[in-house]
Amino acid sequence: MEKVLWDVAQSSEFLNGFVYYKYPEQNRVALNNAMLDKVFKIHKITKEQFDNTLEYYRKNPEKFKVIVDSITTKQKRLTDVDTASAKAIQ
């Protein structure tokens, strides 16, 4: 589930940070659904499986916290690497 949530977050970031900014007239719901469908296809799951798994974690927040903490740590590591690379270029 962690990999799926990571890809969902990254696709959302791409849409929010680039697509919606550059093309504000686009149908956000349709684009978001299309992006989620691609993520589900990559991970060979259905929307129903994803929703059921989210429901499981909603009922087990201590387990969900472990996944979210791992994703947050990964994002922080990537941000730190990007910051260090930017400083090295300067």
Describe this structure in words.
- By secondary structure, the protein is mostly helical.
- It has one domain.
- It contains 4 helices and no strands.
- The radius of gyration is 16 Å and the shape is flat.
- The mean pLDDT is 90.
- Residues 1-77 form the DUF4296 domain.
- InterPro entries: DUF4296.
- This is DUF4296 domain-containing protein.
Q: Which descriptors would you attach to this protein?
A:
90 residues; mainly alpha; 0% strand
The helix content, as a percent range, equals over 70%
Low-confidence stretches: none
How many structural domains?
1
Radius of gyration: 16 Å
Strand content: under 5%
SSE series: HHHH
Mean pLDDT rating: 90
Looking at the structure, what is the overall shape? flat
The total of beta strands comes to 0
Q: What structural class is derived from the secondary structure elements?
A: mainly alpha
Tally of separate helices: 4
Instruction: Give a quick account of the main beta sheet: strands, pairing sense, barrel closure.
Output: none
Summarize the structure.
This protein has helices at residues 2-22, 28-42, 47-59, 61-89.
Would you spell out the secondary-structure blueprint of this structure?
Layout: H1 2-22, H2 28-42, H3 47-59, H4 61-89
Helix pairs in contact: 1-2
